[in-house]
Amino acid sequence: MAGLLRRALKGGLVLAAAVGAALAVPAFAPGLVWSRAATTPAGFAPSAERGAYLYAAGGCASCHATPGREDGAPAGGHELASPFGSFLVPNITPDRETGIGGWSGEDFIRAMTLGIDPKGRHLYPAFPYASYARMTNEDLLDLKAHLDSLEPVARANQPHQLGFPFSVRPGLALWKLAFFDPTPDSRLPVAASAAARRGAYLAEGPGHCAECHSDRNFAGAIRPETWMAGTPAGPDGRRVPGIRGADLGGWEPEDLVFALEYGMTPDGDELARGMDLVVRENTSKLTPEDREAIAAYLMSLRGS
Length: 304
Hints:
By secondary structure, the protein is mainly alpha-helical. It has 2 domains: 45-179, no CATH class; 194-300, Cytochrome Bc1 Complex, Chain D, domain 2. Helices cover 38% and strands 3% of the residues. A 3-stranded antiparallel sheet has the order 1-2-3, with no helix packed on it. The longest helix has 22 residues, at 2-23. The chain is globular, with a radius of gyration of 20 Å.
């Protein structure tokens, strides 16, 4: 009993020290690992049409569409359950008061790639900025142009339902220092084809496939050795399979392309629950060439 008490007290002191240190770390410090310049080539003009494709490629509607709304407006409200509590998805329509209509392009890039909102607050990584950090600024500005073209919806965001210490938002500074590197880090071999490189960009960036298809550590960060290799504890506690070529048994690339378009395995079975939404809102809306590129990338992943 005495040993348990000592460990509990020690754990409490460590937690208190960690929270105190986090409170001392500024939300956006250019000298830290999450600095990134919001620059684009001279003369670049954002395209809402290109942004609409990226909106589909990222499956944004899967999380941001408001439950019960028939128009599919991304006004938020969906609840994401996790071991740390419930995250309430925000409004990303161009409403200036409750959405992101007042955000600049630089604000949007910083939020998408660094997890920092316009007020300088850290965003929880339930929003997969660790994946979106792999996207180019041009693609992000195209996506913002598409979102700005949507009908504004006035729907106030609800606070996340998190217990202590996860409710202490400044503590995310330490999480980032420990687990977040915004530098693109593709697992592709050096001699990969152009198609596989395109697939890597789509799957690792806007598609954020690793967010569900990888296992996580005690702090909710992806364990690198499980990248795309599946997890026994995915969304809603369900098992999520690996999607590397090494994990797909006898599948051929065309089998994976078919699954990404129709949501069915080579045997004619439907993909596991959850992937039906991904296929409907995301991969089925891609061009055939991009589905083939994603398949080429995933089939090239032979293991950690």
